[in-house]
Amino acid sequence: MREPYIPLFCSITDSTIWSHDAETCKVFITMLTMADPEGFVATAIDGIAGRARLPVETVERAIECLSAIDMKSRNKTDGGRRVIQVDRGWHIPAIPWFRDLARKEAEKARKREWARAHNSGRPAGASAIARRTETETETETEKHTEVASPPAADAAPTISVAVEQVWDHWRGALGKSRHKLDSKRQKIIRAALKSYTLNEIFEAINGCAKSDFHMGRLPGRPDAHNGIELILRDGAHIDRFREFAARPASAAQSDWWTQ
């Protein structure tokens, strides 16, 4: 049986997460080990507390800290939040990106080993060619890695990257891991990006996630109305969901939408 794992890069010690107390760091690393490949932790706080061997109250405080906006974080997606509460659990938005980075780093190492193995034992005079081959292999792999890196905070992402970021945020915030990004959904997201920034669209998605009505959490009304097609249908829907995101969670949320 394959042992589950999570890529943990050395740069975590340079991250703002490392400035928190030991319990918060422990809770975060515990959640990393519990997450699936897409970053979802399908458990309640009690389950996290059991894995972390910490009191429930301590875990609640840690998750509250991890869910807060962190303007000093290097990752500006979702306001630097480490953890986002979603239906039936939690989502760690950075996990898919770091898994992809780990895969590319492993591919770089594999290509370097391949170059060394195929360049060994060559006749004299071929060493320069061998070194060039290895260097070119590394350079080519680094190019692919750079393309996969997230855009800088002060640089606007391309439309195709932005569409994927919106889609990933919607799937993470609303727990839609099985849904596919088809051409119709891409078209809807592109249209929204013409008038709204990424953060504004993220706000609209977060607003929908707070609505008991749209998430199907009301007694006797289990049907969810939280498709990306509805949230980004037009400017009126986006603006109302954004306003919804700024309001405190309460039982009146569903009433507000129909006012």
Describe the structure.
This protein has about 260 residues and is mainly α. It has 3 domains: about 10-90, Arc Repressor Mutant, subunit A (Orthogonal Bundle), CATH 1.10.10; about 105-150; about 160-250, no CATH class. It contains 11 helices and 3 strands, in the order αβααββαααααααα. The chain has helices at about 20-35, 45-50, 55-65, 95-120, 125-150, 160-175, 185-195, 200-210, 230, 235-245, 255-259, and strands at about 40, 85, 90. It has a 3-stranded antiparallel beta sheet, sandwiched between helices. Helix 1 (about 20-35) crosses helix 3, helix 6 (about 160-175) packs across helix 7 and helix 8 crosses helix 10. The termini are far apart.
Concise summary:
The protein has 259 residues and is mainly alpha-helical. It has helices at residues 22-34, 45-52, 56-66, 94-119, 127-148, 159-174, 183-193, 198-210, 228-231, 235-246, 253-258; strands at 40-41, 84-86, 89-91.
**Total strands:** 3
Instruction: Write the H/E string, N to C.
Output: HEHHEEHHHHHHHH
Fraction of helical residues: 40-55%
Oligomer: single chain
Total individual domains: 3
Shape: globular
Helix run count: 11
Please tell me the overall pLDDT: 76
Low-confidence region ranges:
132-157, 254-259
Strand order of the largest sheet: 1-3-2
Question: What's the alpha carbon Rg, rounded to whole Å?
Answer: 22 Å
Q: What is the CA–CA distance across the termini? A: 54 Å
Could you give a short account of the major beta sheet?
A: 3 strands, antiparallel
Structural class: mainly alpha
Question: What fraction of residues sit in β-strands?
Answer: under 5%
